[in-house]
Amino acid sequence: MYSTSHGNLPGDEEVLWRYLSFSKFVDLLQRGKLFFCRLDRLRLVDSHEYSHISPIFYPRDPASFAPGLTPELRSQPEELQRAILEDQQRLRTQMENHHKRTVARELRNIAAHAVCCWRHDSAESHAMWQIYAPTAEGIAIRTTVGRLKAALVDKRTIDLGIVSYYDSTKNFLIETSDIGQRIVEVGGYTNIDQCLHKQPWYAYENEIRALLVSDNFPAPLEDLSLYVDVDLNILIEAIVLNPAAASWFENVVRGVTGPFAERIRRSSMASPLPVYRPF
Questions:
Q1: By CB count within 10 A, which of 24, 162, 238, 242 is most buried?
Q2: Can you say whether the dihedral through the CA atoms of 36, 148, 165, 128 is positive or negative?
Q3: Contact between residue 217 and residue 39 where contact means Cβ atoms under 8 Å apart
Q4: What's the pLDDT score for residue 4?
C-alpha cells in the first residue's frame, strides 16, 4: 500500500505514463501486479544508480591528514615530529578504512531497494516511445498520481518519490561534525535520496518512482525482480497504442484486455494534421 511521498510530488490529478512492450503489458494484465526492479539490477544498465557513495567521509582539510613536515613542524624537536607524523598516518589509515567499509555497506544496501518507474507529463513523449516501447507493438499505460497511490493494494509499504537530476560529482550534500581536534564532512544523503537521484542526462525522463524497501533493511530483497499487487481497474486510466500501431494490432490488444478494452486509445501523435479551410 502507498505510504508516503518524497520530494515535491505532483498533485493527485497529474498525469503519469509507463511505456512498455506488448509482452510486458500482457504480463501486467495476467498477473495483476506491477513489476519492480531491484536497484542493483538497474545499476548494471546505469552505473550511476545509487551513485552518491563517494565521498562519504573525509577531512574538511585533507592536508591535515597528509603526513608531511610543515615549517611549523620542522621547528619542533625530532621526537615530537616523529610522534605527530605517526599520529597523522594512523588517522589517515583509520579514515581510509572507514571509507572503504562505508562504500562496501552502501553497495550492499542497493539490493534492499526496488523501483517501478513512471514519467510525469501531461502528454506523450516521442523520446520515451523510442526508448522504452520502440516497436509498433508498444503500449503506454496512462494514469495519475492519485490513481497510482490508490491502486497500490499490496500489503507491503510502497513510497512515491520524484527523481532529482544533477551531477553527483559536483553536487554533494555534506554534514560537518567535530571528532576531537579534527572537523570532518560526512555524506548527508539517505538511502532514499540515493534511490531518487539520477544524472542530468536523464532529465528528459521526468521520472517518478514507486519505491519498495526491504522489510529487513539493509538485508537485500529476495528476488531481483518483484511483483507488487495493484488494482488494475484503478490504475489504468487509458491504454495508449504506439503511434505506429496498425489497426490489426489494436484488434489484438482488444482481444487480451477484456474489461479494459474500452480504455484503449490511439496515440495523439498518430492523429491526422488539422485541415484549415479558407474563409
A1: 242
A2: positive
A3: no
A4: 86
